[in-house]
Structures are given as C-alpha cells and as structure tokens.
Structure to design on (410 residues):
C-alpha cells in the first residue's frame, strides 16, 4: 500500500493528511548539509541512523552522506556497505542506481499523470452511478468500505506493517476522521445533485474557508496579499453560480458544507501531529470515517434502498454492472488519494500547489466533455476566474511556506 496522506489547506483531496506526520528529529550535523539545500528528508533520516550507529567508521559515514543535487533530489552516490567493517577496508563501491533514481523527473511525471487519470476516472464513474442510483450516502459508504478492505488486506500481507494505535492517538484522530467523513459525504450529495463541474467550481472556495479559519479561529494572521488573491475565487464562484444551468440549492449548500468540513479537518490535522507513517494514519482515519458514515446512510436511505433503490438500479443496468461500478468507484477513490500523497511527497510545495489546481481543471474539463454538460458563457468565465484565483493563492502561499522553510534551515 503506497504512502497515503492527508488533506492540504488548499485542496479537498487527501493531501492535507500529510500534516499528521510530525517531522522526525534529525541529526543537526547532517541536516545542515542536506535539507538546507532543498534535499530529501527521507535520505536525511537514513543518514542520521547511520550517524548514530557507532559500528560505521567516520570515513564510510562521510561517503554515505555524499549526495547529488540533480533534479533537486538527494541521492547516495556511493554505497557504504560495499565492504564489511570486519575487513578493516575503507574501499567503497559504486551503488547500483535504479530507474527511479536515474530518471526522477520521468517517475514524478508518471505519478502526476496517474493521479490525474485516476481522479478523472473516479469522477466519471461516480457521476455515472448517480445517474441511475441517486443514493450518495450509501455510495459514500462504498467508497470508504472498498478502501478499508484494501488497507486491511495490505496490513495482512505486511505492506505496510500495521502500526499499533493507543487511546491517546485515537482521540486525536477521531475529530480529523469526522471532518473527513462529513466532507466526503456532502461532496457526494453535491455530485449527485448538480453537474460535476459545478461542484468542483464551488469547492474552489475551500482556500477562502481555510484562510478565514486560520485568521478568526486559530488567530494566525493572514497577509493582505493572500486575502486579495482570494477575491477572484469568490467573484468567479459567484458568477458561475448565478447562471449555472444545473444549479439547485441542495448541490450548492452541500458543496459549501463540504468546504467547511474539510476546513475543520485541516484545523484538527494540525493538532493531531503523530510519528505514525502517513499510510497507517490514512488507514485508521478511513476506518473511523466509515463508522461515522454508516448510521446516516442507514437512517436516510436505508428504507428507500430496501424498497426500490437496489431493484431499480439492477433493472436499469443489470446486477453485474451495478456491482462492478460500485467496486471500481471505491477502488479508484482510494487509489487516486494514495497517488496524490505519493506525488506530493516527491515535489516541492509550489509544484504541489500548481498540480492541485491543474487537477481541478482536468476534472472540470473532462466532466464537461464526457457528460456533455451545457454551461453558459458567464458560468464558463466565472469558473476560469475562480480557478485562476486558486492558482494565484496557491502560488503565493507556497512561496511563503518555502521562505519559512529556508529560514528555518538557515
């Protein structure tokens, strides 16, 4: 199971859960020579472990710490284990470099492509299901159920090994999982009620809610430049909403509640910092969120599903397609979130921000093409203005975070 993480402050996907990982302590002597230059924190941790192992001679530690800065990634250029300490030799052989190390740009590009591809496929299948099976609470449960089964199977085979959880950590993760569950369900209610493109346009307002929460709830001052960059987002969403042909209040309000829920999730993500790896954190949050989503699905949609919901869906598309669609929509939901985390862990914050904006553009564009959604000129212009505002906000925020990191590293 690939590393999956969390929810970013500027996106509604899994990217922000990465905040749940507390930065690992690093040896200052090594960190100063690696992370300060924009290196990879994973290699820094590995080198710290070598440094703490007294069985390694100093000369071999220095060799292991040698790095190449090509493409902005840290990579070992020599293998420290080419000869055993018992032999008393300091001879170091060349490390075998794999494809990922030789062509990091291609690998990162492939991750971006798969992230976008899986996201688009998920949105297409998801909306297709709602066209003949309009039960978003139940479908939300299916999304999480397939992901939880995937996590349990991965734990069973040891990929990765399940991390133990105690009551203290559980208390920290429950608020995050609740926000995740509510945001996920309300997003699907909106997807079922209006066009996919319109839901994603409304969800472009999420940075505005995050900035508001940071300023007025957490007491963290937001620079004027960030507030100004959010003006096009608010204006664009307003323009798009006024003339959206598929507009209805259920879809609009549900998408807005989703924005608020993901903002709540982001706030508690900062408070729930943990040393557990992001893959296990996401697995536990998915399990908790599943238990949160089941009761409303039973109460709000259970009677209708038992009376005619399942029968109508099977009559329209057949049992095989119905079950197949439910399985694959859940699988693509889990996999695209995993790929998002894997991708974002490989790139700088600015690239992350741009990638998140482009993902939304891809989803909106493909949904309009695939479903043939008719949009007014004003809606199209408003959507473009909103996406442009999100891009500007993401760029400014990423630059500010990068400057903070450089100051800390210095």
């Amino acid at each position: 199971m690939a590393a999956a993480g969390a929810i970013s402050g500027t996106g509604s996907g899994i990217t922000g859960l990465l905040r749940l990982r507390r930065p690992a302590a690093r040896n200052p002597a090594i960190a100063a020579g690696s992370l300060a230059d924009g290196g990879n924190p994973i290699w820094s941790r590995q080198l710290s472990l070598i440094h703490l192992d007294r069985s390694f001679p100093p000369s071999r530690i220095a060799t292991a710490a040698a790095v190449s800065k090509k493409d902005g990634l840290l990579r070992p250029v020599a293998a420290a284990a080419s000869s055993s300490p018992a032999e008393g030799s300091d001879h170091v052989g060349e490390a075998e470099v794999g494809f990922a190390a030789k062509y990091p740009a291609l690998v990162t590009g492939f991750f971006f492509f798969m992230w976008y591809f899986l996201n688009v496929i998920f949105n297409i299948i998801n909306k297709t299901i709602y066209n003949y099976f309009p039960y978003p609470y139940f479908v939300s449960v299916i999304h999480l159920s397939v992901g939880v089964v995937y996590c349990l199977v991965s734990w069973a085979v040891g990929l990765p090994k399940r991390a133990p959880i105690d009551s203290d950590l559980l208390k920290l993760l429950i608020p995050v999982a609740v926000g995740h569950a509510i945001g996920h369900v309300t997003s699907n209610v909106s997807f079922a009620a209006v066009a996919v493109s319109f839901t994603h346009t409304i969800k472009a307002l999420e940075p505005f809610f995050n900035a508001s929460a940071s300023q007025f709830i957490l007491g963290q001052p937001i620079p004027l430049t960030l507030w100004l960059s959010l003006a096009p987002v608010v204006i664009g969403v307003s323009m798009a909403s006024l003339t959206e042909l598929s507009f209805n209040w259920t879809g609009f309000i549900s998408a807005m509640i989703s924005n608020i829920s993901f903002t709540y999730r982001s706030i508690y993500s900062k408070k729930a910092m943990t040393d557990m790896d992001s893959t296990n954190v996401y697995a536990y949050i998915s399990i908790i969120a599943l238990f949160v989503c089941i009761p409303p699905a039973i109460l709000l949609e259970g009677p209708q599903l038992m009376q005619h919901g399942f029968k109508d869906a099977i009559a329209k598309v057949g049992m095989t397609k119905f079950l197949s669609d439910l399985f694959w929509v859940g699988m693509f939901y889990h996999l695209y979130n995993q790929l998002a985390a894997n991708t974002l862990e490989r790139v700088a914050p600015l690239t992350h921000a741009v990638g998140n904006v482009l993902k939304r553009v891809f989803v909106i564009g493909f949904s309009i093409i695939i479903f043939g959604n008719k949009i007014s000129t004003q809606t199209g212009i408003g959507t473009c203005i909103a996406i442009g505002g999100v891009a500007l906000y993401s760029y400014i925020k990423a630059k500010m975070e990068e400057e903070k990191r450089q100051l800390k590293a210095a």
The longest helix spans residues 278-317. Confidence is low (pLDDT under 50) at residues 1-13, 24-56, 58-94. The chain is about 70% helix and 0% strand.
